[in-house]
Design brief:
The complex is a heterodimer of chains A (151) and B (56). With 151 residues, chain A is mainly beta. Chain A is built from 1 helix and 8 strands. The longest helix of chain A has 8 residues. Chain A is globular, with a radius of gyration of 15 Å. Chain B is built from no helices and 5 strands. In chain B, the strands form 2 sheets. Chain B has a 3-stranded antiparallel beta sheet with strand order 3-4-5, with no helix packed on it. A two-stranded antiparallel sheet of chain B has the order 1-2. The chains are: A mainly beta (151), B mainly beta (56). At the A-B interface, β6 and β7 of A face β1, β4 and β5 of B.
């Protein structure tokens, strides 16, 4: 099995149903943005486009890591350029004092305000961390580079 | 001082001068830009940090 990077198909449909809110211009009763988390997964996992929600299956474990990951924080106000809508977290994901001895290569971004529904799977080169820091730095927020782009 | 795991699962600190390193590795692909820092003691990795820039 292997992980594959993808915007989750269920997330795209849920967007059309108005389920996910990255900004504050919403038509739901609440006007606050949802809370999104980033959780890390083992290289032996099988996350991808078919992932629908956060699961502890294949999630990493170790010193300095809390199950479920950590909050992504605020997102840039959703915007668009030509036909591409996009947004990116304004801060990075950082774990310190971390030891993850089993190889991991994936971060799942999910919506903890909406039953932990999956947003997207991002893969990178397989890593381990030993008594160190893991920093997932976000890309610049533009149509061609944003973390979340909808073409 | 560098955080290290000496193999007992516990994180402690050691003087950087007592360790071999730091050793750096940079990976740059379409998916990511990653920088890895490693310290070694007696042939074993006792510290490994990674800074990964995600690409959408």
């Amino acid at each position: 099995m292997a992980n594959s990077q993808a915007i989750c198909t269920s997330f795209k449909v849920e967007l059309l149903d108005g389920i996910h809110a990255f900004g504050t211009t919403v038509t739901r009763g609440a006007t606050t943005a949802d809370t999104f988390f980033g959780a890390l997964y083992l290289a032996s996992g099988s996350l991808g486009a078919a992932t629908t929600a956060y699961s502890a299956t294949s999630e990493v474990s170790g010193t300095g890591y809390t199950a479920g990951g950590q909050s992504v924080g605020a997102w840039a106000a959703p915007s668009s350029t030509t036909t591409i809508a996009f947004t990116t977290p304004t801060g990075n994901l950082v774990w310190t004092g971390l030891t993850l001895a089993t190889a991991f290569d994936t971060v799942l971004v999910y919506n903890s305000s909406q039953s932990n529904k999956a947003v997207a799977v991002y893969t990178f080169g397989s890593q381990t961390i030993t008594a160190g820091t893991l920093t997932l730095t976000m890309p610049s927020n533009a149509a061609a580079t944003a973390l979340l782009q909808l073409a | 001082m560098i955080n290290v795991d000496l193999g007992d699962g516990m994180i402690s600190e050691m003087e950087e001068g007592l360790l071999d390193g730091p050793f750096f590795r940079v990976i740059d692909t379409q998916r990511e830009h990653t920088e890895v820092t490693v310290y070694i003691l007696d042939g074993k990795v006792v510290h490994r940090s990674a800074h990964i820039t995600l690409k959408g």
